[in-house]
Amino acid sequence: MRALIDAIIAKDNPSVVGLDPKPALIPPILLNSARTVRDVAEAYFAFNIAIIDAVYDIVPAVKPQIAMYEALGPAGLDVYVRTNEYAQTRGLYVLGDIKRGDIGSTAAAYAAHIEGTPSINGVGSTDVWHEDAVTVNPYLGSDGILPFVQAANNSNKDIFVLVKTSNPSSNELQDLRVDGFAHTVATQVAELVEQWGENSRANKYGYSRVGAVVGATHPVLGAQLRTLMPHTFFLVPGYGAQGGTADDLAGLFDENGLGALINSSRGIIGAWKHTDEAETIRTELQALNLVATSARQAALAMKNDIARVRA
């Protein structure tokens, strides 16, 4: 986590912009001329570039949600990779929201997202995805996580394990009582996350390479998880459009105002929709400029909002 934490400190901002494009969030004029899936994908790319260029000096990281790109097939995945690569050229930490989870050789294959493609016939490992971290699903237990832990250690990258997610139905599984009612599923996973990361804490901040996804929509439990996972950095969805507020975040930070990376997707990339200018767009250039200026203003507002509650 050192690269991420260094970036957070440098920009005095623990926020990440979710790059989750979909037609409803893109100015219609950018899609009006699209005739193929590739055309739509290229509109996504132009949209992403406008946002990255607008916020790269404000935020430390971006988080592309791979599902939005997979929905467009190969053309979308190409734009996912190009978006990641471009964001890295702008000095941003790229957190690939892929939520993979499987066992054995399949998990190891998924872990190539961060470790790179394997060396074959003398051809060296290649980082084809351009991600600094990925999200992973722990439902299959250690068999599904340890290949990612090994890949993170080998490649000097990070993973974030789903622990307590921000969606309303998370309680159906994550709040179930286990272990003689001593734990919920979420707190049981939290203890495992601490264990999975215990051999990768050798940095000046004391956080391991194994982070946790903890939703802002559960502030009381989030504060408890902060105590339960002192060496685990949090990725925090749920702020803004999903109902989480800055006040809900206070218990997720450590005593130094670190320990959590707060995500906003629609609130930043869709900020243009809430402007008066949205009704008067006439050209693609106007649209991209409005997307950029609105995203920048929203990112700055988020930074200032979060600053109120950091220790």
Automatic annotation (TrEMBL):
<feature type="active site" description="Proton donor">
    <location>
        <position position="99"/>
    </location>
</feature>
<dbReference type="GO" id="GO:0006207">
    <property type="term" value="P:'de novo' pyrimidine nucleobase biosynthetic process"/>
</dbReference>
<dbReference type="GO" id="GO:0004590">
    <property type="term" value="F:orotidine-5'-phosphate decarboxylase activity"/>
</dbReference>
<keyword id="KW-0456">Lyase</keyword>
<dbReference type="InterPro" id="IPR011060">
    <property type="entry name" value="RibuloseP-bd_barrel"/>
</dbReference>
<comment type="similarity">
    <text>Belongs to the OMP decarboxylase family. Type 2 subfamily.</text>
</comment>
<protein>
    <recommendedName>
        <fullName>Orotidine 5'-phosphate decarboxylase</fullName>
        <ecNumber>4.1.1.23</ecNumber>
    </recommendedName>
</protein>
<comment type="pathway">
    <text>Pyrimidine metabolism; UMP biosynthesis via de novo pathway; UMP from orotate: step 2/2.</text>
</comment>
<dbReference type="GO" id="GO:0044205">
    <property type="term" value="P:'de novo' UMP biosynthetic process"/>
</dbReference>
<keyword id="KW-0665">Pyrimidine biosynthesis</keyword>
<dbReference type="InterPro" id="IPR011995">
    <property type="entry name" value="OMPdecase_type-2"/>
</dbReference>
<dbReference type="InterPro" id="IPR013785">
    <property type="entry name" value="Aldolase_TIM"/>
</dbReference>
<feature type="domain" description="Orotidine 5'-phosphate decarboxylase">
    <location>
        <begin position="14"/>
        <end position="281"/>
    </location>
</feature>
<keyword id="KW-0210">Decarboxylase</keyword>
<dbReference type="Pfam" id="PF00215">
    <property type="entry name" value="OMPdecase"/>
</dbReference>
<dbReference type="InterPro" id="IPR001754">
    <property type="entry name" value="OMPdeCOase_dom"/>
</dbReference>
<dbReference type="InterPro" id="IPR018089">
    <property type="entry name" value="OMPdecase_AS"/>
</dbReference>
